[in-house]
Amino acid sequence: MACAVGILTKLSPGLSGAAATSASTKVTGSRCFSISNACSEEERPRSDIGRRPKMAGVSGDASSTPTLTAMKRGPGYRSSFSGTVATVFGASGAVGRGICNRLGKSGTQFIVPYRGDHYDVLRLKVCGDLGQVLFSPYHLKDEDSCRKAMQHSDVVINLTGREWETSNFKFEDVNIHGPKMLARLARESGVKDFIHISALNARETPKRLFMPKGSNFLRTKWLGEKAVLEEFPDATIFRPADMYGTGDYFTTYYNKLWRSGFGGTKMPLWKKGNYTVKAPLHISNLVDGIMAALDNPAAKGVTFEAYGPERFLMADLMDWMHEVMHKTPEDFNYARSDLRFDIKPLIACAILQNMPLGLRNMRCPTLDKLERTQLTDEVLGLPTLEDLGVKLNKVKNEMPWVLDPHRAFRYHTYFSLADKPVIHPLHPISGFEERALQHELDKGSKLLAMFGLNYGN
What we know:
Elements: H1 2-10, E1 24-26, E2 32-34, H2 35-38, H3 46-50, E3 85-89, H4 94-105, E4 109-114, E5 133-137, H5 143-150, E6 155-158, H6 171-188, E7 193-197, H7 216-231, E8 236-240, E9 243-244, E10 266-269, E11 277-278, E12 281-282, H8 283-294, E13 303-306, E14 312-313, H9 314-324, H10 329-332, E15 335-338, H11 344-352, H12 367-373, H13 395-403, H14 431-449
């Protein structure tokens, strides 16, 4: 109280109360009053002492603003600051949630640009410590909002993507023009690391099954890679295969009613899945690869192929998935059919893809998605996640947990283990068997070419 009285008696009568809270108050004349001069260190209120900055290297002088790297503090965990600021575009997706969790756990401050309702990304606030998670509204066609979201960052991760086209965003907008603009703005803002996500089967001319020109999604993904590297040559690109995990577009895709023909028990696959080979990747493995690339300077300018450790015949994988979900031929009447003749999913996609709402919940019922999911995962021999030191998860260990919510007869109690459906082991396909399948497909393609027809598979 004595300290407060002393301050008030030394201030000018015309001085406002707001000015009295500053550390240094200048009044008319040559006299300058300061709280530190009016009170000794012992007399100062504890609240005032607690507000004093304790960080070394942080000066009150605006002319000596420290760099973010100089402000690095702590042992390197959640309640620390790693000295890195990252911007994660597309953080509301399955991969984005994992990335934000890992960034916050390492003490990295990150900005989450969001489009639409902020409640879609608000849950990411708990990924980091207090003040480490920031939000910024943006629009992919608005350069100013995108530049604002990354102007203080030295890492930009582009996870934006769309499985289907809308009236506002075509595949060219999301996969080509948007990433190119983000890469250019990142280069102009002085960003050190730029991460971009593409697709494993992205090609200039994708293989085709029933679409006249193949998947436009895969074609624009390939063009997007070229556009990003043109603007940011040191960008790191990941080309993931079909990914499974919480909130994925793989296991949930094959459990939608429209995929089996609305109520049917048959699963239509191209040639019954006997000529399609898949290498599913767990979402956490891609997250591990992205975090490893940020810590590895040699990853700059490198394109990585991200696929699972084992390759499976689509027919075997689909049968095993249904056995895990207790959707057996005996109890669920499950069976595989040929998509070339069982065209109910084709008709459903042709109708549903024009709906203005509901495509997200139905996990993208479009012809383009149906086309690219039936293509074999082909690799080009580029560096992989294992080159970054990532230990890949196997399907048989991780996918049953993802499939459990889709299990049939969830509330049925088995009286004995013998009553439970038999789950046969899932065996990966060997390289010799895959080459034999490809040789058989090549012979069929040559035969069709004699009649002027050309099909990828």
